[in-house]
Amino acid sequence: xxxxxxxxxxxxxSIALVRALVAEGCDNLTLRELETHLCFLAKRHLxxxxxxxxxxxxxxxxxxxxxxxxxxxxxxNEVCV
Length: 81
Prior knowledge:
81 residues, extended
Protein backbone atom coordinates (compact mmCIF):
# COMPACT_ATOMS: atom_id res chain seq x y z
CA UNK A 1 0.00 0.00 0.00
CA UNK A 2 2.85 2.46 -0.59
CA UNK A 3 1.93 5.21 -3.02
CA UNK A 4 4.30 6.06 -5.84
CA UNK A 5 6.05 2.70 -6.16
CA UNK A 6 6.21 1.44 -9.71
CA UNK A 7 7.72 -1.93 -8.81
CA UNK A 8 6.76 -3.07 -5.35
CA UNK A 9 9.46 -5.00 -3.46
CA UNK A 10 9.04 -8.74 -3.72
CA UNK A 11 10.52 -11.83 -2.15
CA UNK A 12 13.83 -11.48 -4.01
CA UNK A 13 14.32 -7.93 -2.74
CA SER A 14 13.33 -8.92 0.80
CA ILE A 15 15.88 -11.74 0.79
CA ALA A 16 18.57 -9.35 -0.50
CA LEU A 17 17.76 -6.94 2.34
CA VAL A 18 17.93 -9.66 5.00
CA ARG A 19 21.21 -11.01 3.58
CA ALA A 20 22.76 -7.54 3.68
CA LEU A 21 21.63 -6.99 7.27
CA VAL A 22 22.98 -10.38 8.35
CA ALA A 23 26.29 -9.80 6.53
CA GLU A 24 26.74 -6.54 8.42
CA GLY A 25 25.88 -8.17 11.73
CA CYS A 26 22.77 -6.08 12.28
CA ASP A 27 20.89 -7.51 15.24
CA ASN A 28 18.79 -4.44 16.07
CA LEU A 29 16.82 -3.02 13.15
CA THR A 30 16.41 0.72 13.66
CA LEU A 31 14.82 3.24 11.32
CA ARG A 32 18.29 4.57 10.51
CA GLU A 33 19.56 1.07 9.68
CA LEU A 34 16.53 0.42 7.50
CA GLU A 35 16.99 3.75 5.71
CA THR A 36 20.58 2.79 4.91
CA HIS A 37 19.43 -0.46 3.29
CA LEU A 38 16.35 0.75 1.36
CA CYS A 39 18.34 0.37 -1.86
CA PHE A 40 17.83 -3.40 -1.57
CA LEU A 41 14.05 -2.95 -1.77
CA ALA A 42 13.85 -0.44 -4.60
CA LYS A 43 14.23 -1.41 -8.24
CA ARG A 44 14.22 2.17 -9.55
CA HIS A 45 15.61 5.47 -8.29
CA LEU A 46 12.12 6.98 -8.05
CA UNK A 47 10.96 3.98 -6.01
CA UNK A 48 13.90 4.52 -3.65
CA UNK A 49 12.93 8.15 -3.16
CA UNK A 50 9.31 7.18 -2.49
CA UNK A 51 10.41 4.53 0.02
CA UNK A 52 12.51 7.15 1.82
CA UNK A 53 9.51 9.49 1.98
CA UNK A 54 7.29 6.68 3.28
CA UNK A 55 9.85 5.83 5.95
CA UNK A 56 10.03 9.49 7.00
CA UNK A 57 6.22 9.60 7.28
CA UNK A 58 6.26 6.43 9.34
CA UNK A 59 8.91 7.85 11.65
CA UNK A 60 6.87 11.04 12.10
CA UNK A 61 3.69 9.07 12.81
CA UNK A 62 5.47 6.95 15.42
CA UNK A 63 6.23 10.11 17.39
CA UNK A 64 2.61 11.27 17.46
CA UNK A 65 0.57 10.47 20.57
CA UNK A 66 -1.92 7.66 20.14
CA UNK A 67 -4.65 8.07 22.73
CA UNK A 68 -6.23 4.71 21.97
CA UNK A 69 -2.93 2.89 22.42
CA UNK A 70 -2.08 4.85 25.57
CA UNK A 71 -5.44 4.00 27.18
CA UNK A 72 -4.96 0.33 26.26
CA UNK A 73 -1.53 0.33 27.92
CA UNK A 74 -2.95 2.02 31.02
CA UNK A 75 -5.70 -0.61 31.25
CA UNK A 76 -3.15 -3.42 30.94
CA ASN A 77 -0.94 -1.83 33.60
CA GLU A 78 -3.88 -1.62 36.00
CA VAL A 79 -4.69 -5.31 35.46
CA CYS A 80 -1.06 -6.33 36.06
CA VAL A 81 -0.72 -4.36 39.30
